[in-house]
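Hey, I'm writing a tutorial for new members on how sequence and structure tokens pair up, and I'd like a real worked example in the thread rather than a made-up one. If someone can provide the structure for the chain below, I'll link this post from the tutorial.
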Amino acid sequence: MTTLCQQAHELITARQESYGDMVTSWRRIAQAASRRTGLELTAEDALWVAIEMKLRRDQHSPENPDHLRDAIGYLGILGQLRAESTAPQTFVAPQRSLLEELGRFMSEDD
């Protein structure tokens, strides 16, 4: 039996073979989200939104292991992103408007 971490790794590897480098992909996702929202979002911001979405879904339906598996995968990509960064990592609180948008988005999913 494989663990959720192993499954997440296998899924990321398969997605990377299909779609290319995950860090590059999430940087592009952040650029697209920035254009759409008018906010300046980073790849890390975009990953945190995806992680929060999966954790929220897990709260709603904990019987589905895909939510945690996907969140673990996104955390792995976040780790890769940070490892590739040469700048020191510091916590910056998200912009209030980003949190409001996330809340609106999450309430639509319920």
